[in-house]
Amino acid sequence: MTCIFLGLDAGSVSTKAVALSENCDILASAYLPTAADPLAASRQVLAQIKSSINGEILGIAVTGSARELVGEKLEATIVKNEITCQALAAAHLVPTARTVIEIGGQDSKLIVLRDGLVNDFAMNTICAAGTGSFLEHQARRLNLTMEEFASEALLSIQPIKVTGRCTVFAESDMVHAQQTGAKRPDIIYGLCLALVRNFLADAGRNRQIEPPVVFQGGVAKNKGMVRAFREMLSFEITVPPSPELSGALGAALLLKRDLTHNMNRHFQGTAGLDSGR
Fold first, then answer.
1. Predicted model pTM
2. Separation CA 39–CA 253 (nearest Å)
3. What is the set of domains in the chain, with CATH numbers?
4. In this predicted model, what pLDDT tens digit does every residue of 61-80 receive, in sequence order?
């Protein structure tokens, strides 16, 4: 029977889960808006996962902003912080990675890796101008879906300059650009560049970003943001498949590693007892 390791990322905006095999293949995944009820969303994504897989579930690891609450209620095997899980996912997907950029709906992180281990990290401050919610709000103002927003960012030739680091001032720059006849793709890409500048000035402050760089989190699906990071950093940015699942993947990898280690210790101890008879 297939052994399955469940990873759950109980985030403030979205809740994600993955089922991982012994070979570290993702057998199933689920994604739902948290909708201000992380426990209910977590139960729903896990129910979706369990209905689509066939095997023995060995445990569940929980990460994300609501990890303590959800982990306790679901009697999780492991509860772990997001930095560790995001780092594990990046090192698994890109073993040579030296920098991880993770931007979600409400927070963002910069993680420095050395030989697959966390060497340093930083998170954004309280301002939303360095998170995905900033772009989602601007997309709604322009009456665009996030897919349309990202596609138009790639069409920009002369992006506007968004000077404000605060969301309020950024919106003021956007409105002024609209009133003065700036093209919509240039406005959109200007906003993407502003988010990157805010991220680098906040989470990236006083930290050297070295390639290979892995871009994770839901915002990494936005090709306009990928373009903006490439332009600002002047080197390639790697976006793994399904970057929004990176936290849940890292949690599942951590669970697999810890359970495998414990089982190996158990077998080694049993072998020692047998040899002493």
1. 0.89
2. 22
3. 3-86+246-275 (3.30.420.40), 95-239 (3.30.420.40)
4. 999 999 999 999 999 999 99
